[in-house]
Each structure stands twice: as structure tokens, then as C-alpha cells.
Here is the input.
Amino acid sequence: MKTKLKAIRFSASLVALSMILGIGVVLAQDNPVRSLVNGQKYEIEGTVVATSDEGFLLRDETGNDTRVIISPNASIKSNSFWGGGDRYPASSIIRGLKLEVDGRGESSGALAATKIRFDKSDLETAQSIDSRVTPAEERITATEQNAERMSGQIDELMAISNAARGGAKAAQDTADAAIAGVNATNRRISSMDEYVVQSTSTVNFKVNSYKLSPEAMAELDTVAATALTLRGYVLEVQGFASSDGSAQKNKVLSDRRAQAVIDYLVMTHNIPLRRIGRGYGYGETNPVADNSTLEGRQQNRRVEVKLLVNRGINQNVEVRTTADNDGTK
Here is the structure.
């Protein structure tokens, strides 16, 4: 029996370690990082999505990520009409900041930045948003608490085993229950990168406009209120336009509509940037109604907001207990 109980404790340790490592991998998942040509000059414009001691990760408007290393002599300044601009330390570059980077590719595939420029207004916006982003330490703490709860469940199973009559039979049943818990946890970890649609909301716009109406704001208020009650949620924002005007103009208009929705959710309801996928405008494609009618065109001038939840985070891990030889639990 002692041998089997030791096996149970070893399984529990593996479960806790798997949860910590598995969740860490899921949270680190992101777009593929492209590799630049060594020595080639690059000028890239995008948004900072992650930072490190060496530099940051920059995502351009096409969704491509580039790893940027800040050179010791790099010029980091704000844009200025007269060409001067204020100088800033490398620590001023934070998540959510829109900027332009000049530099050359280096042997590791990253961009060695020699010139970085951004607008002061964009820096102020990024600082305001970053101050409300949940620290990474909270996610790590949650993972540790999860592992601790799993350890408690295994201790409970051991107590059941010690109290059971029948010796080897009770120990075997308890081991089977522990394995079931391990399997359930593995299934949960496997589903950490799976998202399911919780709800879809639609807001409409006037012709040639991307201004939110009072009705649209009220609908987005409901979306935000629902999202903030969930764990592991993501908002997917898609803009569309009717067939009024040229296709090129409608593409730009649909992008602006999607961005207007994102700005409202972030600035009004403090939705963290990491909870919002990059908004995209589809122009006049994917209509939901007939563009040859006035009513149909009104329905096609829209933004769809999908609320998705993480399947792994929002499911319970169940560990069954076993019965004693006399049928009691």
C-alpha cells in the first residue's frame, strides 16, 4: 500500500507541474515572429504587444510580429513638427504604444533599432491603458493556487485510502481515482487554446459614418458588462460596409468603424488590450442583407462583436472519490 500511495503523490506532483507549464505555454502563445535578413535596412510601423529587457515585440497592420532590439545608441524621441521632439528612455516603450522603428536586421532575425519615433498622444494613451492591465504576477498566482487546490484533492484521496478497509483493494481504487483526476486535468490543459463563441452583438452606422449612435453605445455597454463577469474571454471586432461608394472607400470605412468600437470598449469600460483581438474591416464583403434595397444596406453598415470564452479556463476539473468495501463513501 505504501508503494501505491507514493505513486499517488508522484502523480500529484506531475499534475501540478503540468498545470503550471501548460498554462504558461498557453499564455505565451502569439502570432509567429518573422525573421529579418541580416544587414538589410527596415522601416516598420506598428503597435508594441510585448516588452523585455532587450527590447519589444512589434505587430504591424498586417498582423506580422517583429522582435526589436534597442541599440545602446538608439535615438528615441517623440514626433515634432519642427523636427526636434523630446527624448525618452527605452523604458518609456510600453505595450499598446504605436510607433515607427528604423534599423537593420541582425543575425538572430531581430531588428536592431537605431531610430524610434512616436506621437506624445499615443504614448499618453498607451500609459493610461497599461496602468489598468492586470499584472502578469496575478496570472502566475492563479496558476499556483490552482496547483495547490489539486494537491489538496490528492491529499483527500489519500485520507480516503487510509480509512478504507481492504488494504490493497482500497489503495488500488484510490489510485484509479487519482488517475481519473490527472486525465481530467490533462483534458483541461489541452483545451486552454480553444475558444467558443458566447454571444454575438451587432451595432449599425449611418451612411459614410463611423460615429457610434446612442443605441450602439448601449449595446456595447451590455457587451462589456457581460465580458467583465467572465474569465479567459476575448472580444473579436469585425467592421463592414454597404455597397454605397467605392470598394476602396468602404474598406477604409469598415476599418474605422471597427476601431471606433474598440476605442469605446477600451476607453469607456477599461477592457484590457490583451482581451481584444486586432479589429478588421471587411469593406462591403460578407453582406447580411440585399444591398439593392435601402433596408438591406442599412443592415450591412455594421460592426459585429463576438464574445469568446476560453474552454479550458471555464470548465471544472472533477476528481471522483471511491467507495469502501461496504459501499460507504
